[in-house]
């Protein structure tokens, strides 16, 4: 009995001294390259879409009403200074001139007769003054009718291009009604664009601008701001800004151009992330893993993205300057996963 007790005690002591089974090593966090998101203040710019036009575009019409007898130019025609472009039927204005001339001769004869009677004492001085006033009025009528007769035609004010033909031969027009629109080539081409009050207030005369036109194969041309409207358009509330364009034979009135003008002040801060950090792009949105350096964990975040450039993919919103993003293994990470960051400033 005593022997069995001794054997049992030995077995118990041996069991207590036996080492516990070893467990495998804990899985290590994956190493992930990270980068810090930085912001840069760009050059302040103002953008807009405008229309090409000759700086001086003149509407031409007749100084008197009448029927158009001749209209010798079409849209797109090139004209020279003094060239007769249109003419009225002069029957009416010629009749007006004949009537005014006859009235002047009658008034002149009446004044001469009254002057003789005044010298003989047969009439009073007020009567003579009335005859003189009638003569002066008749002479004025002759000058006005002569002016109308001389201006029954439209002449080109200078070399240019016919931009619009607003009437046709045989049409009766009122005095001052626009018949033709002429663009003066000597004035040069401009890009005229409407801007909001906020944008126009940031511009100064002489500010450089970069313009692209589809009609010129989107070639970049450089211009400068030469005029800004003093008040807003009553209909749209925008301010017209004119940009002088360089001489180019391909320019035509009515072409559409996109302008980026250098403004005063500092531009908005732009953010960009490396392309390798972005995944799942769709409809202007994408995903990134933002790294929390305090806990070494990644968190999935949705961001709005813009165009790609040499600095990376532009971020419109969803991330702040100074935050860190994962660059590698983004297809193997999960939200809240612990990582071993590589590249952080610790």
From TrEMBL:
Domain CusB-like beta-barrel as annotated: residue spans: 197-263
Cross-referenced Pfam families: Beta-barrel_RND_2, RND-MFP_C
This protein's UniProt keywords: Signal
Signal peptide span: 1-19
Domain Multidrug resistance protein MdtA-like C-terminal permuted SH3: 272-332
Keyword Signal in record: yes
Entry-linked NCBIfam families: RND_mfp (TIGR01730)
Family, as annotated: Belongs to the membrane fusion protein (MFP) (TC 8.A.1) family.
Protein name in UniProt: Resistance-nodulation-cell division (RND) efflux membrane fusion protein
Organism encoding this protein: Sphingomonas psychrolutea
Lineage of the species this protein comes from: Bacteria, Pseudomonadati, Pseudomonadota, Alphaproteobacteria, Sphingomonadales
């Amino acid at each position: 009995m005593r022997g069995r007790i001794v054997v049992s005690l030995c077995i118990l002591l041996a069991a207590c001294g036996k080492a516990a089974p070893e467990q495998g090593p804990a899985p290590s966090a994956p190493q992930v390259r990270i980068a810090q998101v930085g912001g840069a203040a760009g050059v302040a710019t103002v953008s807009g879409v405008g229309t090409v036009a000759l700086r001086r575009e003149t509407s031409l019409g007749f100084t008197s009403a009448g029927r158009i007898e001749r209209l010798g130019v079409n849209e797109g025609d090139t004209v020279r200074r003094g060239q007769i472009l249109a003419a009225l039927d002069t029957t009416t204005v010629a009749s007006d001139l004949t009537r005014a001339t006859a009235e002047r001769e009658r008034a002149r004869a009446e004044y001469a007769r009254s002057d003789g009677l005044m010298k003989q004492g047969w009439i009073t001085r007020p009567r003579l003054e009335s005859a003189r006033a009638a003569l002066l009025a008749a002479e004025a009528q002759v000058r006005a009718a002569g002016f109308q007769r001389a201006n029954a035609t439209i002449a080109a004010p200078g070399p240019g291009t016919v931009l619009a033909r607003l009437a046709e031969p045989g049409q009766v027009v009122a005095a001052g009604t626009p018949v033709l629109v002429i663009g003066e080539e000597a004035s040069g081409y401009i890009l005229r664009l409407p801007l909001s009050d906020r944008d126009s207030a940031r511009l100064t005369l002489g500010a450089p601008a970069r313009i692209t036109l589809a009609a010129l194969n989107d070639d970049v041309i450089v211009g400068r701001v030469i005029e800004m409207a003093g008040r807003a358009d009553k209909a749209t509330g925008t301010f017209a800004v004119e940009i002088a364009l360089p001489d180019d034979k391909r320019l035509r009135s009515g072409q559409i151009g996109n302008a980026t003008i250098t403004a005063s002040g500092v531009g908005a801060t732009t953010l960009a992330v490396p392309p390798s950090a972005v995944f799942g792009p769709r409809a202007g949105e994408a995903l990134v893993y933002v790294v929390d350096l305090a806990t070494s964990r990644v968190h999935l975040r949705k961001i709005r993205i813009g165009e790609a450039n040499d600095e990376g993919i532009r971020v419109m919103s969803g991330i702040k300057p100074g935050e860190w993003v994962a660059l590698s293994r983004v297809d193997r990470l999960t939200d809240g996963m612990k990582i071993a960051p590589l590249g952080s400033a610790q």
